């Protein structure tokens, strides 16, 4: 059947001919005839309704039937005219469906709303009924969630497709090679970055040669697609003459050919290979791509120097080599001759360390084009050079996390070259001195200022009006107080402020809460001395609010959760807040809620539900009472629950087994009774920290706790637990790993989880370094029986405390396997026998307590044990003798001390073990000598020619030695006679 457009061509020819013989009215009649003919063609195609073909409408409805549409996004897909449906577009002349755009209208990003994204995502099946759209040239299903299904092979049948976007659509698995049939395709986006969503699977590609068949392709983005070894991706791309933009970030690419036989990238302008594992030098073929404008090689393992040939890339306007820690040497002078370069990233690479070494290369035409210079975490030292003022176009300068020292010269505010500066980040350096208004005089366009982590004093007068309008200000640890800076009130556009640790010790002014707070989305004024009552906050924008470690007082307003609808992080710890926890905190947007170290009363709210996204809940160190409400474990994403140091009571609820995502459970220092629920070991398989110390728990320790393979801190101390220590406790997988490589502890953005760990005889609060702590504390209970030898399998243990129980038996010699132990406390038990000499192998040990047992014999010396000079370590063991105790061993004839040698033979097992080692050494030497001797002389016994050659050699050597000695002896005699 001919299409309407085909008829139009015929009609148009007739119209040109007829126009010579017809007047205007005739022409109009001919056009009416054309319209009538088109309608007849469409009827023959099965659809008499303008704007939609019947077969294509049915194809769309069949496709919709397989979809899950929770928000009814496709509610407009009714009626006859499919060209008016949501996401559908038709070609005007022909009426064919040419475009299907079902992209999620609520895309998720770092600042996006995950709940909203999930709510609006399409899912279900991708049915082949879509093949009825034979004229489709545009297909977009991005930012949905199809549950990890593979890309259907039938997608390769849309031969007219020019645009295909399946990015972050919840698809996964091996990408079908049938996509190589799309010879008309110009744009292909298969980005897969939403790994944190449970149902999303990785994309992978085993052989990329099918890409070489996409002869029309200009744009390719496969960020997050995992390339398997030998995927031939470079060879495939090098066969595409029209390819202009290639983005292969985070693709697990491990190698890149250093050379190519022929470089065919005649149109390539953008190449992104960042965040891979490329471990070669910079490939030479790169410098033959003359049109290359954007080159991103960040965060690889590229090694060697930056080649001087980089000067060949004269069109470059973006170059980023950051994060390649094996790049070394100096920055080549050729780099500064790239006259079009606008962005230069050289962060975290091993280049020149002193800023003044860069003076000779901060020249050339680059200073007239460069807009972004990032050199953070590059171990730069020295002072800021004045030559920065030569960069007249510079907009963003990031020199943070270096060792830049000295004070900022006041002249920096007058440098004409910094007049265009929009972003300045000097955070985490060693800068000091006073900064005044003069430093900021010329920064009229500045909107980002980072000075945190320095020792600067901001001496700015109260009536100062800055020349800039900041959006972001990070000045933590700088001296600013005691008054809150009045000039902040002039910053009407600020949305992120970190003013923590500034020495502010006043009540915040009214304008701060009334106007400034209204439009901010990140506020950290923690670790100051700010006083006053906590106001009734209101902000429609705030997402992160940190007021911790201040002196705020009064009760928390009951409507606080509703007055900040987008709040995700609320940190109010270590203040003087009182009253009850408002029920409004059960509102559904909190991610992290920290109210610890206050004076809160009452019971825990029992209003949580499945819609709450809370991940961290910390109500520790208050005066809360009652029991744990069952609704807490209805929170689906809860990973960290801190309720320690309160007045909570009752039995540990069975509902705890529903908190299946918990990594940290801290219920210590309360009044809980009953037994430890066995459900903890059956259901909470992600637990890294279990802290139940200082309660009133009874009964045996459930052996199935050993199933918690991620557990690295187990603290059951100071309860009334009885029975034996389960031998299965030697099976804790994470405790067998050296120094806490487990990554399940909560660490979200600007929030670090805090935990109190008792070790080395005192309470210690850990935050950033909690991952390094592997500890077991069962002290202060009624445990009996022997210490299981299986505990010696926990090679990663840093602290072991079994004190204050009724344990019996000897200390196992296998304890020497715990080489990471820093703290060991076995005091106040009924242990007997000798202290095993193998304990001298515990070279990290800095705290030891074996007091009040029935140990006997000589105290072994050596390594760390020699440094323990406090006799109280061994007190209450009448049978012990030797240093550091005053009681000498009976047959010890030498002075006792840390350098003593000899002593009681029965107690000196270490020397016996050493003698045995020496005997084994001598035996092995003898055996080795015999084997070596046979290896030399054995062949001589069986090979006559070798034997004759060997003895001829011996005769020659003998003659040479004899002659040499005879001559030397005669000369010696003649010399003596002459004397």
TrEMBL record:
Keyword Repeat: yes
Compartment(s): Cell membrane
Gene3D superfamilies (UniProt xref): Ribonuclease Inhibitor (3.80.10.10)
Pfam families: LRR_1, LRR_6, LRR_8, LRRNT_2
Keyword tags: Cell membrane, Glycoprotein, Leucine-rich repeat, Membrane, Receptor, Repeat, Signal, Transmembrane, Transmembrane helix
Membrane topology label: Single-pass type I membrane protein
SUPFAM superfamilies found in the cross-reference section: L domain-like, RNI-like
Main location group: membrane
Transmembrane segments: 921-942
InterPro entries (alphabetical): Leu-rich_rpt (IPR001611), Leu-rich_rpt_typical-subtyp (IPR003591), LRR_dom_sf (IPR032675), LRR_N_plant-typ (IPR013210), RLP23-like (IPR046956)
Residues annotated as domain Leucine-rich repeat-containing N-terminal plant-type: 56-91
A GO-annotated cellular component: plasma membrane
UniProt record similarity statement: Belongs to the RLP family.
Stated name of the protein: Receptor-like protein EIX2
Organism: Phoenix dactylifera
Taxonomic placement: Eukaryota, Viridiplantae, Streptophyta, Embryophyta, Tracheophyta
Gene assigned in the entry: LOC120106175
């Amino acid at each position: 059947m001919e299409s309407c457009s085909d008829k139009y061509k015929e009609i148009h020819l007739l119209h040109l001919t007829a126009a010579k013989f017809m007047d205007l009215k005739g022409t109009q009649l001919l056009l009416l005839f054309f319209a009538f003919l088109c309608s007849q063609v469409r009827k023959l195609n099965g659809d008499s309704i303008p704007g939609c073909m019947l077969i294509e409408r049915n194809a769309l409805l069949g496709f919709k039937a397989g979809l899950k549409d929770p928000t009814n996004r496709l509610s407009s897909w009714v009626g006859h005219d499919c060209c008016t449906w949501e996401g559908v577009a038709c070609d005007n002349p022909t009426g064919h469906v040419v475009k299907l755009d079902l992209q999620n209208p609520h895309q998720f990003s770092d600042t996006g709303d995950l709940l909203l994204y999930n709510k609006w995502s399409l899912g279900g099946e991708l049915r082949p009924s879509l093949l009825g759209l034979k004229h489709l040239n545009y297909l977009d299903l991005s930012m949905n969630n199809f549950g990890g299904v593979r890309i259907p092979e039938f997608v390769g049948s849309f031969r007219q497709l020019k645009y295909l976007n399946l990015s972050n659509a919840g698809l996964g698995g091996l990408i079908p090679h049938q996509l190589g049939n799309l010879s008309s395709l110009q744009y292909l986006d298969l980005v897969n970055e939403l790994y944190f969503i449970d149902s999303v699977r990785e994309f992978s590609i085993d052989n990329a040669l099918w890409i070489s068949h996409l002869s029309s392709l200009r744009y390719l983005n496969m960020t997050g697609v995992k390339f398997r070894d030998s995927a031939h991706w470079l060879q495939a791309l090098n066969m595409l003459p029209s390819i202009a933009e290639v983005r292969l970030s985070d693709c697990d690419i491990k190698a890149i050919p250093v050379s190519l036989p022929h470089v065919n990238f005649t149109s390539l302008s953008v190449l992104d290979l960042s965040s891979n594992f490329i471990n070669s030098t910079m490939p030479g073929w790169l410098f033959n791509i003359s049109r290359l404008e954007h080159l991103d090689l960040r965060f690889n393992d590229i090694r060697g120097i930056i080649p001087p040939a980089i000067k060949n890339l004269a069109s470059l306007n973006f170059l980023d080599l950051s994060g390649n820690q094996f790049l070394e040497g100096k920055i080549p002078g050729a780099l500064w001759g790239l006259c079009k370069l606008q962005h230069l990233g050289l962060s975290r690479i091993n280049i020149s360390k002193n800023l003044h070494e860069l003076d000779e290369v901060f020249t050339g035409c680059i200073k007239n084009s460069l807009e972004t210079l990032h050199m953070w975490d590059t171990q730069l030292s020295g002072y800021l050079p004045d030559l920065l003022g030569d960069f007249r176009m510079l907009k963003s300068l990031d020199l943070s996390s270096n060792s830049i020292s000295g004070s900022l010269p006041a002249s920096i505010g007058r440098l004409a070259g910094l007049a265009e500066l929009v972003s300045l980040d000097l955070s985490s350096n060693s800068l000091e001195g006073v900064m005044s208004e003069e430093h900021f005089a010329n920064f009229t366009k500045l909107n980002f200022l980072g000075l945190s982590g320095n020792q600067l004093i901001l001496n700015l007068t109260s009536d100062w009006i800055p020349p800039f309008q900041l959006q972001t200000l990070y000045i933590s640890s700088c001296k600013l107080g005691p008054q809150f800076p009045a000039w902040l009130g002039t910053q009407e556009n600020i949305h992120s402020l970190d003013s923590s640790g500034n020495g502010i010790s006043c009540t915040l002014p009214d304008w701060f809460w009334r106007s400034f707070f209204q439009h901010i989305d990140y506020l950290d004024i923690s670790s100051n001395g700010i006083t006053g009552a906590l106001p009734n906050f209101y902000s429609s924008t705030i997402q992160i609010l940190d007021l911790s470690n201040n002196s705020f007082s009064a009760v928390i307003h009951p409507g606080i959760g509703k007055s900040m609808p987008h709040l995700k992080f609320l940190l109010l710890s270590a203040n003087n807040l009182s009253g009850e926890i408002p029920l409004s905190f059960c509102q559904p947007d909190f991610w992290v809620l920290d109210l610890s170290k206050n004076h809160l009363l009452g019971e825990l709210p029992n209003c949580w539900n499945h819609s709450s996204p809370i991940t961290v809940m910390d109500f520790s160190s208050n005066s809360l009472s009652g029991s744990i409400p069952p609704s807490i474990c209805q929170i689906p994403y809860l990973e960290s629950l801190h309720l320690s140091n309160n007045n909570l009571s009752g039995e540990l609820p069975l509902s705890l087994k529903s908190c299946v995502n918990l990594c940290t459970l801290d219920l210590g220092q309360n009044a809980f009774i009953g037994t430890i629920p066995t459900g903890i070991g059956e259901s909470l398989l992600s637990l890294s920290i279990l802290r139940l110390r200082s309660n009133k728990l009874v009964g045996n320790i459930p052996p199935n706790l050993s199933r918690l393979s991620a557990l690295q801190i187990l603290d059951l101390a100071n309860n009334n637990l009885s029975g034996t220590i389960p031998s299965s406790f030697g099976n804790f997988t994470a405790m067998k790993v050296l120094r806490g490589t487990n990554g399940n502890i909560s660490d979200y953005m600007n929030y670090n989880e805090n935990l109190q760990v008792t070790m080395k005889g005192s309470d210690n609060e850990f935050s950033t370094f909690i991952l390094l702590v592997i500890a077991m504390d069962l002290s202060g209970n009624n445990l009996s029986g022997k210490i299981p030898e299986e505990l010696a399998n926990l090679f990663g243990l840093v602290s072991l405390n079994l004190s204050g129980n009724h344990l019996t038996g000897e200390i196992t010699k296998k304890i020497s396997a715990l080489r990471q132990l820093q703290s060991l406390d076995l005091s106040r038990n009924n242990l007997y026998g000798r202290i095993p000499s193998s304990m001298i192998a515990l070279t990290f040990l800095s705290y030891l307590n074996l007091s009040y047992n029935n140990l006997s014999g000589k105290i072994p010396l050596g390594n760390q044990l020699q440094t323990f000079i406090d006799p109280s370590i061994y007190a209450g063991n009448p049978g012990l003798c030797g240093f550091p105790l005053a009681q000498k061993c009976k047959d010890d004839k030498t002075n006792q001390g840390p350098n003593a040698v000899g002593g009681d033979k029965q107690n000196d097992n270490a020397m016996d073990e050493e003698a045995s080692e020496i005997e084994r050494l001598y035996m092995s030497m003898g055996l080795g000598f015999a084997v070596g001797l046979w290896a030399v002389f054995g062949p001589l016994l069986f090979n006559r020619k070798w034997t004759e050659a060997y003895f001829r050699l011996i005769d020659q050597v003998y003659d040479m030695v004899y002659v040499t000695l005879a001559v030397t002896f005669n000369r010696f005699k003649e010399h003596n006679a002459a004397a």
